[in-house]
Sequence to fold (126 residues):
Amino acid sequence: MPKDKRALVLGGKTGLLGQKLSQVLQERGWEVKAPFRGELDIFSEEAVSSYVQEHSISHIFNTVAYTQVDLAEEEKEQARLLNRNLPKILAQVASKKISISFITAQTLSLMVNIPFPMSQKINPIP
Fold:
């Protein structure tokens, strides 16, 4: 496996978007690491950095985000943790010469050339 094709996909084990991204990357010859929540503390820069080094990760793909817009005002801390703190931690880890991407359903659809209109509902992957 080429060292430049080792991906850490956050949300890739249980998230719908992350699972699909993991599948697409594997189909394109990538080695994918998609740890469960209990396997990696994604809110610890030290833990993420150690995981990246231990597995020789070349790219980090983040599919984790707080997406419940209607509840964001009531759940400010959770929204802040996922949408501000996590990207900051990942950027700090990535500054050590690792590529990082923040993936949305629309971004993934462009990668696999599948039209994804904004009005389309996301269905679970079989």
